[in-house]
Amino acid sequence: MAALQLLVNGVALGAAYALVALGFVLVLNATSAVNFAQGDLVMAGGLLAVALAPLIPLPGIVLLPVVLALMAALGLLLALAAYLPLRRRPPVSVFISTIAVGIILQNGAAILFGPEPRAAPPLFGDDTLHIAGLAVPEQSLAIVAVAGLLIGAQQWVFARTQLGRRLRATAQDPEMARACGVPVTAMILVTFAIGAACAGAAGLLLANRYFVTPTSGGDLILKAYIAVTVGGWGSVPGAVVGALLIALFEVGVSSVLSYPVALGALYLTLLAILVLRPQGLFGEAVRRRG
Amino acid sequence: MGERHSPAETVALIAGALALLAYALAFASPYGLRVLTVAGVYALATFGFQIVFGLGGALSLAQGAFFGVGAYVTGILGSRYGLGFEATFPLSMLVPLLLALPVGLAVLRLESHYFALATLGIAQVLHLLAVNLPELTGGSNGLAGVPAAVLFGWAVPRGLPMAGLVWGLVALGGLIGWRLARGRLGRSLAMLRDDPLAAATLGLDVGRLRLVGFGISALFAGAAGALAVHTQRVVSPEVLEFPVMVSILTIAIVGGRGRMAGAVLGAVLLLHLPEWFRFLERGYLVVYGVALLATVVLAPDGLTGLLDRIAARLFGRRPRASVEAKEPPRPQNSPDGLAVDDLRKSFGGVRAVDGVSLELRPGSITGLIGPNGSGKSTVINLLSGLERPDAGRVRLGGREVTGLRADRLARAGLARSFQAAVLPNGAGVLEAVAAARLAIDPDARTAEAHARWALDRLGVGDLAGQGCDGLPAALRRRVELARSLVRRPAVLLLDEPAAGLTDGEKAELAALLRELAQEGVAILLVEHDMGFLLPLAGRVLCLDRGRVIYDGPAGGVRRDSAVAAAYLGRAVPA
Amino acid sequence: MSALLSICGLTAGYGGSSALDDVSLSLAAGETVALLGANGAGKSTLLKALLGLVPARGALYFDGADIGGLATEARVRRGIGYVPEGRRVFAGMSVRDNLEVAGLPAARDRAQDVERVFALFPDLALKSRESAWRLSGGQQQMLSLGRALMGRPRLLLLDEPSLGLSPKLADELFAAVRRIAGTGTAVLLAEQSAARALAVAPRAVLLRLGRVVGDGPAATLSDERLRETFFGG
């Protein structure tokens, strides 16, 4: 029973992590750039929800579209300021420019909100449901449902729409995509917007049960990074599965030992994976760029 | 990059040092002195970062962690065990080094973003340990009561004496860093940052060099951490937090990547910035973020780069000290020729090279031709060690070298050129050629003398003082060739050396290659331009789909029906 | 007859060395021209320069409009289709998605055009849901060609389409090119395999070391002339 309870918690956390990793890997595929600010975007989404809550005194689910839209705009801004000017420079430039954006977001948040942990409103309600002897917080179910829905929507757009095809073509071979009439720069901007929106949604989902502080981004970017490494660099389904695994690991080890031990073990596992199997646990990543 | 200091630079350096000194002695409040001391500490930590990241290009996010480890070593040994400065200071440098070496061995060969991630992971683990091992580290409160640094029985008090100690060490560390940067190590690191493949084919052991750079960065960080603790007299997990790393990274980038002067300039500027933005309180790092972003986007060479440009505009480009040419000695047991037997290589089921045998005798010029995709480039990559063959044997002289790494082959007497000339942008011609001798010569000066000889020999000695950027095609090719020539190779593999040359330039190149062959070099020439190749080569091999379809005298190529069919399609009769 | 494509004084180069040197030529609507020369002669660079994939100087007019300043995607949308060397299909996408991504904005037009490509290459229709990387080399080449047709081009640029194909597959491919040319699409065909290209194209342009060294009816092109283009005089 206890194990089942942990599983529910782990899946809920994993669903939110999956959104973070998804946004990270989409940008990575479209630009080959590591967006180091992804964790801080999650934090920004969480605090945005905190700030919006008194203005819109309604459940979190109503805030979600507002957060998605504002975060998408922030993603565009990020691309314009920290990616597009550096397109022709070595990849490490973008890595550093996104570190810079992360620093700005993190410390900007500290100035605006102070260092205390804050909670965003729950998506629907605060109740705990009792299902077959399991105490399941309503919020956990809501997280899984909303994250599942958003990931499903992303998959549908990418698989079924002309926009999605163009985004995928841009990610696979930007030059050839141009030669097929795809406006590649616009596609990259859209990808950054989607990536930031995913982060924002994750921020809103996480900021209720797990709280949010201006410094929460640091751990989240590492977890997204680990998820993507575990799942195979560049693989979208791999990132989602990797995120779920990380969350289950974290919840499992925390319950037996402690959160710091879980975190430490996670990072050590990451180092072991990098050294022993840099291609990820699930074989070669789907990375087919010339 | 590490050139000699010009008089203007020396003047600027002395003026800067005097200004700092005057400020410290006459104007600084105790608080101001403290900020200045911390600036010195960060400058010292950044020296190491300039070597591993600025020059080596490896984005280590563990520099802050090494700083923290150095701090904790001094803190724990000083406050818990009462050890003195003479023991704690060296140990504060040694422990980060001992940590860096195994970690470096494991993760330095990873791609750059993985390396950044791995080093960040290490930093996080160390931070967790510091917080969660209170018996050792004092947990999140840290340890108080760290003694002052004791020099020859004198406990250095805070204020001016401590600032003096720190800045004395900054001067010493900066000098060491500057010498490393402009010497063999710094140049080798810069070379492999700009082009790891070319660096390997010039004989540089990429893995070992990166490890050395990483180790040096840890030494500097550890020393800085120890001094930080002697300044604060407490150590807490804050020293292991990400803001330390962010500060070092920002100082390096804003000051100018790879420059020791940039580290000092960046540290002094950035440590004082928060004082001017007091109203931001704990959020002062916002300013760092903005400074970092603005520098990366607008002035990628940082402040020192900007100052250089201003100085160049005011005083003109400074003339480089001329270098006396010196003929590099021929390697002693230089191998005679290269023999290849039944070489094979497939990529994903496609046989790129399918049973190629050839022999390059000393003094001979062999041509390698074939239509697009016939496997010529793969052959040259296999011979130079950039790819490993699936099967077959390669012997250099009498020695079996099959599957040897590129840098080993290069050191064994093999040189190659690339299709697109790979001269590093921003470097001078003399430096670029001298880079090819870094794995051979004892120091950078000797390498430059040898480089000058090679440039003279190719008739472009007057280019020595120029930059590689904007060199016309023919001269670029010439400089590229000088890079191969300067190594006195026994075997020379040239990939399309005549591309983009005029007829006159081609004739000169042909004469030069003949001369080299007469000296006993074995030359393999991949070339499309038959008018250039056929009169020059004694023997020609033609590849088609990875197989040799012609192997014989150059004169027979034009009349061979198999060659004609491979190039023109099957229907054209020979 | 007014020119569909006219190039005047086109010069391009990488890293200081010049790959195209003052190239001028023009193509009429519906004309098929073979672009012949050894590797390194500048054929690929010429096609890429037409699309704006490599920087170049000189005048470029397509259908009477100056396209020299346009972005690649804008040139493509004006009616230029490109089949690159090495096929470069989007490996992780399905055959159908590979075609649709290059198609017109309206879904109905796209569906029509996909059917037209499937009619031309029935093999692709059978594999429409397969990932492109699972196709054989020949099928990938068909897909690359089909993809270039999806924008309803008036000019098709083909870069070494027969490279790496068996003679039988190459024959099939050239038959398809002939059919496409027959519908009034102009074709500029860069080929090393001169014999095949000349069987399709009534006119040939010879490139050597970045310069046009011959331009005329294929029938008047002697073997000796060809040999010179490839091997030098």
From TrEMBL, chain A:
It is a multi-pass membrane protein. InterPro entries: ABC_transp_permease, BCAA_transport_permease. GO terms for molecular function: transmembrane transporter activity. Keywords: Amino-acid transport, Cell membrane, Membrane, Transmembrane, Transmembrane helix, Transport. GO terms for cellular component: plasma membrane. It is found in: Cell membrane. GO terms for biological process: amino acid transport. It holds the Pfam family BPD_transp_2. The chain crosses the membrane at residues 6-28, 40-56, 62-85, 92-113, 141-159, 180-205, 225-249, 256-276. Belongs to the binding-protein-dependent transport system permease family. LivHM subfamily. This is Branched-chain amino acid ABC transporter permease. It comes from Azospirillum palustre.
UniProtKB/TrEMBL annotation, chain B:
It is found in: Cell membrane. Coiled coil: none annotated. Its main location: membrane. GO terms for cellular component: plasma membrane. It is a multi-pass membrane protein. Gene3D superfamilies: P-loop containing nucleotide triphosphate hydrolases. Keywords: ATP-binding, Cell membrane, Membrane, Nucleotide-binding, Transmembrane, Transmembrane helix. Residues 338-570 form the ABC transporter domain. GO terms for molecular function: ATP binding; ATP hydrolysis activity; branched-chain amino acid transmembrane transporter activity. The chain crosses the membrane at residues 36-58, 89-108, 115-133, 160-181, 211-230, 242-271, 283-300. This is ABC transporter ATP-binding protein. The lineage of its organism: Bacteria, Pseudomonadati, Pseudomonadota, Alphaproteobacteria, Rhodospirillales.
Automatic annotation (TrEMBL), chain C:
Residues 5-231 form the ABC transporter domain. GO terms for molecular function: ATP binding; ATP hydrolysis activity; branched-chain amino acid transmembrane transporter activity. Gene3D superfamilies: P-loop containing nucleotide triphosphate hydrolases (3.40.50.300). The keyword Membrane does not apply. Keywords: Amino-acid transport, ATP-binding, Nucleotide-binding, Transport. The keyword Nucleotide-binding applies. GO terms for biological process: L-amino acid transport. It holds the Pfam family ABC_tran. Belongs to the ABC transporter superfamily. This is ABC transporter ATP-binding protein. It comes from Azospirillum palustre.
